Amino acid sequence: MAKLLAVNVGLPQDVPWQGRTVHTGVWKHPVTGPRMVRRLNIDGDGQGDLVGHGGEQRAVLVYQIDSYRYWQRQLGRDDFGYGQFGENFTVDGLPDDEVCIGDRYRIGEALFEVTQPRVTCYRVGLRMGEPRMAALLVSHHRPGFYLRVLTEGLVEAGDEIVKVAAGPEGMTVAEIDDLLYLPGHPRGQLARSLRIPALSPGWQTSLRALLDQADTAPGQPAGNPGLTSAAGPPPAWDGFRPLEVTRIDAESTSVFSLTLAAPDGSPLPFAPAGQFLTVKLRPDGGAPPLVRSYSMSGPPGAARYRISVKQEPHGAASSHLRTRVRVGDVLDFAAPRGSFTLKSGDNPVLLVSAGIGATPVLAMLHALVAERSTREVWWLYGARDGREHPFAQESHALLSRLANAHERICYSRPAPGDREGVDYGTAGRLSVDLLGRFGVPRGADAYLCGPPGFMREFPAALAASDLAPAGVRTEIFGAGPPLTPGLTGVSTRPVHPPAGPPGTGPAVAFARSGLTVGWDPSYSSLLELAEACDVPTRWSCRTGVCHTCESGLLSGGVAYSPEPVEPPAAGNVLICCSRPRGDVVLDL
Length: 588
Ligand SMILES: Cc1cc2nc3c(=O)[nH]c(=O)nc-3n(C[C@H](O)[C@H](O)[C@H](O)COP(=O)(O)OP(=O)(O)OC[C@H]3O[C@@H](n4cnc5c(N)ncnc54)[C@H](O)[C@@H]3O)c2cc1C
Ligand code: FES
Hints:
19% of the residues lie in helices and 28% in strands. By secondary structure, the chain is α+β, with helices and mostly antiparallel strands. A hairpin with a 4-residue loop joins strand 25 (507-510) and strand 26 (515-518).
């Protein structure tokens, strides 16, 4: 008979870590006597970061005493106390390779159901004083698991644990954990896992993404879409290759397009609508190269690529492209990338953009026309005035070729010559309110791109609106929002070279942040260097298992330490556990 050895609780506290502060509830301590277990927490327990931990599906974390013994041997430690692994229940019995998702257990007065394995996060490493712990728990098949509380009640150390129902499919915690994190992801196992209603919605979403990949692109080396949206097919070429500028066209006062072709005239690889190219420019005078990305704005599948650039006041790369580049020049480009691409379906499509954000959605409009789409398509665009309205003729002509298209143009400050009802429909800024008034349909797939202020508010407002879109996808023309779970007081400083003397190692370019710095071996990973520069980063485990830090590696190579549990998609890098092997350009 399995037994509850300890009930461990702890409230979140601020803990110093690597010169920063983490707000975490990972420190749990055993309590004596009966404790009430409620739907969301044991009395006296709490989580510091409710995005990654806690909630109904992750109310109680369980870890086995047999795994304590295992890790004591593996790590050569003898200092473990109950709650050592951040768990609420330390149990004798219930091993991860026997307990199944959906199993139900009665402990004391309460009834529980197994919902998912433990979340892989750096905080267990922080608690254990062993930074690799999150990856070790996965690679050694001993993650522990979460319980949902079906019936609230008192529990106490010493209670017997009685299994009252077996989960359907009989898939163990260790099997499910391996299925998501380890290479392989057998299709049959994925399908089985999705037949377990008790599996938490988060895990179902991840495993469904893996199943979709197995169905649509079997055998393709596309990384792990269950863990990251950065997964995808390999880039069409490694590093940078030369492309020739074959045309330059003005699109508005400040926007101009460059058409690009292979210098030998060979066709360029297909790129899905919405993807971007990255250019490396070499300014005069020995300054470091400028690396910038530009969404493709032309029809996908054309023999040539087209990018459209807004000349920013004092913008280094956009000014260089405008003033220095001529037809016939050859520039270095990294292959098309990005997951902001048009998804197939029958529901309406909203292409919503403002300013220079029109570029990727214009490519999508081209794609819809090329496939003679009968979907309801809405082109919703905001510009300042007619002089700053690129692609006016082109988008209008494309829309006229679609069976079911609607066009709404807003000018925030129409100029004296701009004609209402001809050049634009509405004076004012494009807003979610306006979309409602335009009669935009509910349940559409929405694609949004625009200036920073627009992107800060519009996507969330649209997702929360009565229009209830089926999906809201966004492209950000710069560094994405950081994800730093549990850290307090995260810096909002603009990016900068790290403090101290410049690194003398290989050049590390952060393309989205427009910063190139020298590597210094005192950093243990590219993530640490990025943090020293305040480059926005996303991470969770910091040891190569969760893929939250997976980023585009636009050129160069890296060495891993530790090796990732599953490698990233080709052309990507896990920055938390890698160092540059030479000059690298990162899509960060
Ligand atoms: C995925 C992706 C897709 C993109 N697609 C496009 C696209 O389709 N079209 C496009 O035009 N851009 C696009 N961008 C943005 C593009 O990569 C560049 O960031 C943009 O061209 C500005 O680069 P820059 O070198 O000209 O400006 P930077 O020199 O990097 O300057 C950045 C900003 O600071 C301002 N600035 C610089 N110096 C000064 C100063 N002394 N005083 C005041 N302000 C100053 C500039 O005006 C500019 O707004 C995209 C970015 C990404 C990540
Ligand atoms: S942060 Fe988890 S793999 Fe890098």
